[in-house]
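Last lecture ended with a question: if I hand you only a sequence, what can you say about the shape of the protein? Today we answer it with a concrete record. The protein is Cytochrome c oxidase subunit 3. Below, first the input exactly as provided, then the predicted structure, then a couple of comments.
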Amino acid sequence: MSTHYHPFHLVDPSPWPYVGASGAFATTFGSVIYFHYSQTSLLIVGLILLTVTFIFWWRDVIREATFQGHHTAIVRQGLKYGMLLFILSEVCFFVSFFWAFFHSSLAPAVELGAVWPPTGIDVLNPFAVPLLNTAILLSSGATVTWAHHAIISGQRKSALLGLLVTVLLGMIFSALQGMEYYEAPFAIADSVYGSTFFVATGFHGFHVLIGTTFLAVCLVRLINHQFTKHHHFGFEAASWYWHFVDVVWLFLYVCIYWWGA
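The predicted structure:
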């Protein structure tokens, strides 16, 4: 067994980058095939490969951090920079959706009736389910902060309660958004309004599902005593991501639901 005298973690060879890339490739082409020919075989294979990658790659990272002691202070600092850069890339991702929305809404084309929302579109009431979802998501931001401070203070029961409430609020948000989509009086094919609305809010909903899963994994790890006062970056990264989801929703609510209506 070799001994190293540096604080960095040189990862062992792993199959998961290759499996994940294959899953992403299969999912992308499977989606195109499904859209054009309604065949789901390749899409299902891709989603299965991605799910397997998520589960086992997370397992390996948790094992490295919790049981093998590879996540030193220097390694955690690098992980923090990586997470911040990832969130920055997500910001750029959502900026493109807002760009498309304002490009079409600030100067509506004559094909839309030169008005916004376009002629014939019956928009959603911003003070109904969207406002309720805003309150739910902001409350979840408060509870995840509560859980974070509880972990730092060593208050295990408060941390568990705060994180459990956050996960439940995320699930309620997704359920309400699903109901809103089901009852929406317009579809994604209804002019550029439907396209920008469902793409922007739909991708945000997808990020809520990812964030809820992220926090649920952290909840299981917290139950299993895998977080300490000074070593809980997994939860910290999840809370950063969740706050990002909160902020994006505020912009979506103000711009698309309220101003856009």
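Comments.
1. The chain has two domains: 1-70, 73-256.
2. The mean pLDDT is 91.
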